[in-house]
Write a structure and sequence with these properties.
The complex is a heterodimer of chains A (555) and B (265). Chain A is built from 19 helices and no strands. By secondary structure, chain A is mainly alpha-helical. The longest helix of chain A is centred in the first third of the chain and has 35 residues, at 61-95. The radius of gyration of chain A is 27 Å and the shape is globular. Residues 1-5 of chain A have low confidence and may be disordered. Chain B folds into two domains: 1-75 and 150-237, Rossmann fold; 84-148, no CATH class. In chain B, helix 3 (91-101) packs across helix 4 (107-117) and helix 8 (214-221) crosses helix 9. The relative contact order of chain B is 0.15. The chains are: A mainly alpha (555), B alpha/beta (265). The interface between A and B is large, with 41 and 51 residues.
């Protein structure tokens, strides 16, 4: 590249992306179609919802104000999510990116290079929340017959608003890179972002919005009035709200240019600060050596020995457990699981139902819900376990260990947390809802069987469609294989729900009947077992077949 | 012993390896040479079971790598060109894992012996992510040799090693062969191949361009020169009329040849 000539860095990225699309057009087509469907569905849902509210003019301005506060609350939650996730993203894109040394060696100013990096950080952390928000605002616009000028205004407001958490989170990451223990900044950032995100999810659920259903109409009206009069003060979220609502009536709020200016200044300032910090070596926690450990002999830990007796598969399980304990991108998945369990338990505990029959009916619904919940957890816990071998796969591929033993080890590694969750939640819902004995046992059966099936599906399909290039567990399911897993896991959960409908229906008819000892009950149990074995076993066999045929690229 | 017969590997229309045959006997060190893209790594990956051959047969210690992979891999030690090791394990933990995977009885003792031999004992309890490239390369050798494999396959052994470690690795490969085992290595270092290998196999465009001892290769190349580099260049000669960029100045006039101009690097 000739000095003085402006290098089109974003154009370079766009060309690389175009090449990637050309190499796998089907994958991108599926992704774009899915995103389009989600966007269309969201916009339609919001449009219908707003039209429904507007059909009752007697609710008056309170409804409009409450709607505005709801949109602001939704956007604020996404803003917080962006701020949490950008902690780890910023470290990767701004400071440890593999192309940084190359770009900085080119005849370009460091500020320009870091402006590109800030843009990448923004895309990586704010693109998804923006894609979730824009259809909501589009639905609002169509429902209110907004003028065409509303749409660009709303888009600018949202895109500018999300720039602020990106800048704030990136600056916090910069601070961490100075203060975190040497060589541990990624771990600290990941732990901080996951804990904050899990806290946010549990905190939101702990508000127990279902309490609203217990309010009298007068109390509800008072609540609505209070909510509508909530004032966020001179905050960016309220400026975005002003811009969107101004756009709906065809006017341009002065808050919009203010917000856009603030966003531009934040991102530009971040670029300058990041360039300076990188060049003067301010980010000392990124590198550096850790305190040396005692070099003396260290025998195998007490917990390793019983597992290692299982032979080669045991060796893989021990290795995976060690990596789990030391890699925050892995153990943080367990925190997500705990947060989900917390949400589930809070939801179940909040259900106050009178009468055994109603409790049993709710218990039946929860049995169905348990399968779907475990399917969702499995995509984070079981599906990535084979891909997490990453570039270390050569140890297993060149070692004397059969593919079946590798998959068996991965199954044994992923199974305990899912089984604990399945049985634990099954027991908890039966106890909290105080359902009949038949349904209590059905809950446990559903939890246990779903855990087995979901683990088998996750490990098998994860081996069949691996992503060994993924940098962390959360990236692995973002693939056609992940989509196939979710489809099959939901199909399994639906089938299990249908099978367990028999004991549920029988219990509703006669709670005292010992369902499982009747021939029909035993047949139901056998069918549920077979259904589980077919999904888990089929996926594992398919995964083994594909794992054996997997080849990394030649020279 | 490593035996490769008529090995073919195709990726769609592209033929990476086309009918390669080679044999490495016990007690022998064989160097696999070739320009970039000649098919060296593909051949190595087929021997280690990382790739399935399109045609042909690969046997390690008498066991077919495709039909009896476990038996073949039991006798195989492998050092890849990029020593990726689990960064969140310590060296001791990694060698313990490899020992269990390969069913080594006295793995702990052997691991300590190899760590000491490579000077890694003082950092044996540190996470591998804190190691330099050379330290990782040494640890990869320790992992490959832990089970005293009958066949050692090494892809680019000297990359990232300091002169002392490079010498140590060269000596240990020779010693491994002298104990009656088989060593197959790929390298771009002609000096390494010349000093260490009993025989040399030169691959070019997926085919064997020549193989044998130095004396046999000299005959095959039809050159009276002694040095392996000259033989290698002759065997892999490219018919290219293009002027290389380093021979052209900014004004498109031929530059004066500098030191090393025209020599393959």
């Amino acid at each position: 590249m000739r000095p003085g000539r402006r290098a089109d860095l974003i154009g370079l990225r766009a060309r690389a992306f175009a090449h990637a699309v050309r190499r796998a057009p089907g994958r991108y087509l599926v992704a774009v179609t899915l995103m389009g469907l989600v966007a269309w569905g969201t916009a339609t849902l919001v449009d219908r919802g707003v039209r429904w509210i507007d059909a009752y003019p007697q609710i008056g301005t309170i409804a409009d104000a409450a709607l505005r506060r709801s949109v602001e609350a939704f956007v604020t939650i996404l803003v917080l999510a962006v701020a949490f996730s950008v902690l780890t993203t910023a470290i990767t894109t701004l400071y440890t990116a593999a192309d940084l040394p190359l770009l900085l060696a080119w005849p370009l100013s460091a500020e320009r290079v870091f402006r590109l990096k800030v843009f990448e950080t923004y895309l990586a952390s704010a693109a998804l929340p923006a894609l979730l928000t824009l259809p909501v605002l589009a639905g609002l616009g169509t429902a209110r017959d907004a003028p065409w000028s509303y749409y660009p205004q709303a888009a600018v407001a949202v895109l500018a608003l999300y720039a602020l958490p990106v800048a704030a989170g990136s600056l916090l990451a910069l601070l961490l890179m100075r203060l975190a223990p040497a060589g541990r900044v990624k771990e600290v950032a990941t732990a901080a972002s996951v804990l904050l995100a899990a806290g946010l999810v549990v905190g939101l659920r702990a508000l127990r919005p279902e309490q609203l259903a217990e309010l009298t109409p007068e109390q509800f009206e008072a609540f609505l009035a209070g909510f509508a009069s909530l004032d966020l003060g001179a905050s960016p979220a309220s400026w975005a709200g002003d811009a969107v609502w101004g756009g709906l009536s065809g006017s341009v709020s002065p808050a919009l240019p203010l917000l856009a200016l603030l966003a531009w200044a934040s991102l530009a300032g971040l670029g300058r600060v990041a360039a300076w910090a990188y060049q003067v070596g301010w980010v000392r926690s990124l590198d550096g050596t850790m305190r040396p450990r005692d070099p003396g002999p260290r025998p195998a830990a007490w917990w390793e020995r019983p597992i290692a007796r299982w032979g080669r598969g045991g060796a893989v399980v021990v290795k995976d457990l060690r990596l789990l304990m030391r890699d925050p991108t892995q153990w943080s998945q367990l925190l997500v699981l705990l947060a989900l369990a917390g949400v589930y338990l809070v939801s179940t505990a909040s259900l106050e139902v009178e009468g055994q029959r109603f409790r049993d009916a709710l218990g039946t619904l929860n049995v169905a819900f348990l399968g779907f919940l475990l399917a969702g957890v499995g995509v984070r816990l079981a599906f990535p376990v084979v891909s997490l071998e990453g570039e270390g796969l050569w140890f297993l591929r060149t070692g004397p260990i059969p593919a079946a033993a590798v998959l068996g080890a991965k199954f044994a590694y992923a199974m305990p947390p899912l089984l604990l969750l399945g049985l634990g939640l099954g027991f908890a819902q039966a106890t909290l809802l105080d359902v009949s004995a038949n349904l209590a046992s059905a809950s446990l059966v559903a939890g246990g069987l779903a855990a087995v099936a979901v683990t088998g599906l996750g490990v098998g399909l994860g081996a069949a469609y691996p992503r060994y290039d993924a940098t962390q567990a959360a990236e692995v399911p973002v693939s056609p294989g992940g989509l196939l897993y979710m489809t099959l896991a939901l199909l399994y959960a639906a089938g299990l729900t249908l099978l367990l409908a028999y004991p549920a229906w029988t219990t509703l008819a006669d709670p005292t009947l010992p369902v499982w000892s009747t021939p029909a009950g035993r047949l139901t149990g056998l069918l549920a077992l077979g259904w589980t074995a077919a999904f888990a076993g089929g996926a594992l066999a398919f995964g083994r077949w594909r794992f054996l045929r997997y080849e990394a690229g030649g020279d | 012993m490593i035996e490769v017969e008529g090995l073919v590997k195709r990726y769609g229309a592209h033929v990476a390896v086309d009918g390669v045959g080679l044999r490495v006997s016990p007690g022998e060190v064989v160097a696999l040479l070739g320009p970039n893209g000649a098919g060296k790594s593909t051949t190595i990956r087929a021997i280690t079971g990382l790739l399935r051959p399109t045609a042909g047969r690969v046997r390690v210690c008498g066991h077919d790598v495709v039909r009896s992979p476990l038996a073949a891999k039991s006798g195989l030690g492998y050092v890849p060109d990029r020593p990726y090791l689990y960064p969140k394990l310590t060296a001791r933990e990694l060698l313990r894992f490899v020992g269990r995977l390969r069913g080594v009885d006295d793995g702990e003792r052997r691991a300590d012996a190899w760590l000491e031999a490579f000077g890694l004992l003082p950092v044996a309890n540190e996470l591998i992510e804190t190691y330099s490239h050379g330290m990782r390369q040494k640890l990869t050798f320790a992992a490959a040799l832990l089970a005293e494999p009958a066949a050692l396959v090494v892809d680019e052994p000297m990359v990232g090693l300091d002169p002392r470690a490079a010498r140590q690795v060269r000596d240990l490969m020779r010693a491994h062969a002298d104990r009656g085992h088989t060593v197959l290595l790929t390298t771009h270092g002609m000096d390494v191949a010349e000093a260490l290998a009993d025989r040399v196999v030169v691959l070019h465009r997926g085919r064997v361009a020549g193989q044998g001892t130095m004396a046999e290769l000299r005959v095959a190349a039809g050159t009276g020169e002694d040095d392996l580099e000259a033989i290698f260049l002759r065997l892999t000669e490219e018919a290219s009329e293009a002027t290389p960029p380093w021979a052209v100045s900014a004004g498109d006039e031929p530059a004066r040849p500098g030191p090393g101009a025209g020599r393959a690097r």
